[in-house]
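To the wet lab folks,

You asked to see what we're planning to order before we commit. Fair enough. Below is the target structure as tokens, and below that is the sequence we designed to fit it. If anything looks off to you, flag it before the synthesis order goes out.
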């Protein structure tokens, strides 16, 4: 199983980035997809989640109205569209595939997002 994140980088405050998480080696449609982030010196936190069928979404309060999570089953890929970025969004962003039926989970390697002028 592999989860490969991409799309991170350096962006100015107010800018936008789209993160991608390409999954392979698993039955994508049976996994919820999660985006976490970890800033230096802080614990890893859940940012957004989309259920296996795409019908249920969750966002942490800090990103509501700015970030959008989505998934494309044809491409086995999950996305995190991040708009109106703030310096406090700076972190390493990780995707996680999780399945509640058997508590299986897989993590990607992370992608750095830096918001700075």
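Sequence we intend to order:
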């Amino acid at each position: 199983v592999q989860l490969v994140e991409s799309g991170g980088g350096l962006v100015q405050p107010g800018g936008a980035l789209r993160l991608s998480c390409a999954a392979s080696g698993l039955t994508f449609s049976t996994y919820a997809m999660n985006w976490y982030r970890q800033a230096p010196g802080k614990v890893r936190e859940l940012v957004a989640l989309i259920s296996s069928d795409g019908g249920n979404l969750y966002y942490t309060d800090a990103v509501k109205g700015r970030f959008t999570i989505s998934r494309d089953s044809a491409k086995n890929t999950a996305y995190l569209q991040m708009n109106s970025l703030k310096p406090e969004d700076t972190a390493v962003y990780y995707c996680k595939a999780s399945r509640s039926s058997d508590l299986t989970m897989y993590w990607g390697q992370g992608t750095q997002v830096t918001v700075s002028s």
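Structural context that might help your review: The chain has a mean pLDDT of 97. The two ends are 37 Å apart (CA to CA).

Thanks,
Computational group
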